[in-house]
Amino acid sequence: IPCSLAHFRRGISSSDMMNMHLEYSHTVSEVRTHVLSLLDRHSTVLGSYTWTEFDDEFLAKNVESVSVADLTGPKLVDLKVHNLCIHIFSLNDDSPSMLALEEEEELSAANHWLLPAGDYLLDYVSTTIFFSDRNVDSNLIAWNRVVLLHGPPGTGKTSLCKGLAQKLSIRLSGRYAHSQFVEINSHSLFSKWFSESGKLVTKMFQKIQELIDDKDALVFVLIDEVESLTASRSAAQAGTEPSDAIRVVNSVLTQLDQIKRHPNVVILTTSNVTEKIDLAFVDRADIKQYIGPPSASAIFHIYLSCLEELMKRHIIYPRQQLLSLEELGTMNFMESDVTRLSLTLRNLAQRSVGLSGRALRKIPFLAHALYGKSSTLTVEGFLKAMERAVDKQRQEQASLVNCV
């Protein structure tokens, strides 16, 4: 079932089909009424569609965007047939607070956000909550509420974790009044004093436990580069890792086993070097998903979002319509005056396969910095600059490999 998402400029939620921003003073019912009116005026939408301009005065004044997203099944969605699930949300603009282990300590052990700031992962979390609601005996059917995303650097593992938390906080806003996101700063949990690191880990999880005790809160805990806290104990015993690392791993495993009893917590972890992680932690992860470099279609969407932003800021001018892959597909990818620029972007995306997500996001900046002839470029001129930037990135990447 497609969903409709509504997004307050300061404070509510989203899900599958729509994404909007509103003023704080307007109620959820007002938003829902105007969104339904917008949908009633459209019979069908193609793929992941987004409205950013509205005829409705209320929407034009208060709403930033309405997006169709996370569709399953046919790309052409008949809005007259589907029962839409509308979610309304707003982003929290506050900076993360610091979660210190002791009141007198200046070193932050974690960053803490209020939220909202891959579908199977969403289904995974939904199932953990569903099983808990049905009081399924976890001694007979085990789940640990731990997800491990692994793969090379720069492929978006951390961003995916944050995006997953964001989306779940919106989807489950009817179940949980608010959501919390805690990003553990692993380096701050290591002490110069022998045996103290394990105690710091325990204190950190005690702070997290305080958040979990609020049953109206959905709590996400992100441990980035989890190998730093779960280094293989066999390596420590062999003398290649500090012996204090064993205490840290033991403490982490103990704390994970304790908090998994709570239905309102999800542990999200990432790693670039899974071979260094203790097998006991890997075994506790319910999902172990490899995240590789973006595919050509994913790169196309990344570039398209970048170009839309630059056109919005008049760095690319004049604005020209770029088609989505779904729209190009309906035209059989045939070249015409309408499709020419979009097909050029598609070819550029295919040439960019192999670059990390982090590198891809830099391409538009490098294109303008290195090859932009003026402060403002046309779409065609900017695409040519991006092609040169991609070639330069590939040359630099090859040079680094040859130097290793």
From TrEMBL:
It is found in: Nucleus. It comes from Sinocyclocheilus anshuiensis. This is Pachytene checkpoint protein 2 homolog. It comes from the Eukaryota. Keywords: ATP-binding, Differentiation, Meiosis, Nucleotide-binding, Nucleus, Oogenesis. The keyword Cell inner membrane does not apply. InterPro entries: AAA+_ATPase, ATPase_AAA_core, ATPase_AAA_CS, P-loop_NTPase, Pch2-like, Pch2_C. The keyword Nucleus applies. SMART domains: AAA. Gene3D superfamilies: P-loop containing nucleotide triphosphate hydrolases (3.40.50.300). GO terms for cellular component: chromosome; nucleus. One of its GO terms (molecular function) is ATP binding. Its main location: nucleus. Pfam families: AAA, AAA_lid_TRIP13_C, TRIP13_N. Belongs to the AAA ATPase family. PCH2 subfamily. Plays a key role in chromosome recombination and chromosome structure development during meiosis. Required at early steps in meiotic recombination that leads to non-crossovers pathways. Also needed for efficient completion of homologous synapsis by influencing crossover distribution along the chromosomes affecting both crossovers and non-crossovers pathways. Coiled coil: none annotated. SUPFAM superfamilies: P-loop containing nucleoside triphosphate hydrolases. One of its GO terms (biological process) is oogenesis. Residues 143-295 form the AAA+ ATPase domain.
